[in-house]
Design goal:
By secondary structure, this protein is α+β, with helices and mostly antiparallel strands. The chain contains 15 helices and 16 strands. The chain has a five-stranded mixed β-sheet. The longest helix is centred in the N-terminal third of the chain and has 66 residues, at 14-79. It is flat. The mean pLDDT is 78.
Amino acid sequence: MIQKIKQCFNNIKYRSKLILLCILVSFLPLSVMGFFCYNQTINLLRTRELDSLESSILSVSNSLDSKVNTYQNLLAYLANSNVLAEFSSYNEANAYDQYEYLNYTMDVFLNTTYLQHPEISQITIYNADGDMTHGKQLRPISDLENESWYFPEAISYQPAWYKKKDGTLCVIQYLCDPYITYIRSYSKNCIAIQLDPNLLFGELDQTADDFHIQVDSPRQTLFSYKSASLLENSAELRSWVTRTSPVNACGWTVTLERPEKIVFASVRNMGRVIMAILFICAVIIFSITQLFTSFFEQKISALHYYLQRIKEGHLDYHIHDDSTDELGDLTNNLQAMIDEINRLIREDYQTKIELKETQFKALQAQINPHFLYNCLSLINNKALMNNQPEISQMSQLLSVFYRTTLNKGKSETLLQNEIKNVTSYIDIQRLLHDNIFDVMYQIDPNLPEIEVPNLLLQPLVENSIIHGILPNKTKRGQLFVTVTNVMGQIYFTIMDNGVGIPQEKLSTLLTTDSSGYGLKNVHDRLILAYGEGSGLTINSIPGQSTMITFKVPV
């Protein structure tokens, strides 16, 4: 029975399935939800209003905490600055030294702070150790005695906030003594930053509607605001909802109050409209279900048509979905996959074209190699007849070099032939340059007979000779060629004692396109033949040496 129902459900159109699902999910719970919501809405709304109030007070305290931290950190920086701490040493100095310090040291330092914080109205140092003054920036400690908040214990080595008689805010702490030892000490001299209260409290009057907000320090009320509507109806408001939150940076307390009558006004109206809303929701849900399923069906139909076109071989057909839901992602990922398939097809086609061009060029290079070999053989014979051993040697080396290089037009050659090719090339270069460099070989005699891409070693050796050894005029050149078989890997090393490669060039040597059979060409051919991790590794010390290594599997 269950199997038949499942089979019947699977055969229904997808749109019908969605409509049925929405009806089951919406209408059936709706009747239960109506009764339950009526009893729970009041509690939920009360919780929401209280949470909103809590969120508002936390937002205010966090905002104040951030702002207060900014100025407390600035004050701590100034208080611990040796530039300001040193002023006490000038109390007994002569007038010229005092003038020099105040105008060219302290003023410059404080003016820099003003430039960075233009909102600061005044920075004042209160001198408790002497009579030296300097405008508003250096005042005697007696100036604080007229403030209502002031008593000697009110100031410490930690920032303390106070509201002055004129309404401005003041953050103050003791000034550090100059560094004498690694232990920092504080003097009785003070430093204070004066701010406009609007910098900290200017936005608090917009926290909420119909509210009273107050900010208290341990000794003063720093800010208090009550909205106009509460001032007009204060006699009618007896019960309040109050929330408090600390400002951790400075020990303040933020208090937010709203009348219960206003906070829970929406609760009283909600019960009367719940049933009407539920009925309207039923109608809306049915209508939305129709529209939603229709839209959903269109997307599925478009995707189905797209897949059908791909099945028929139309890979040039393009589809795009601007949505970010699962169907949108599926559609766009499918399109990305088709684009990748098209790219791979184009790359494969291009690779085949390039391969054909390479084979054609190789065919051109060996149109008549026998003519070249016969000419080199004739030169060799003539050289021997005329007792010219160097000419004979050169012709023999060229014959070996070009036989292995041309390789009958093949792109791969035996490892032994590749080694023979590079040794011939090295001997030719030594003859051309009057043996100005030495060469040392370390070649494993038991190398397996494997095929490797043609012309792997010669470009590397050419680079070492032309760009490394020959430009070095200070020492005799040395070239090292190593080929070893280690645990199923053939390791190749080309090393010279030449001029080296600058670091800035070394970092881009294998990423910059180059013409001909250069280093990047060999690097790319190795990766193409053996995969990532099989390319060249180049290490160089400028002025000393360059070493190029790579490996191929057996």
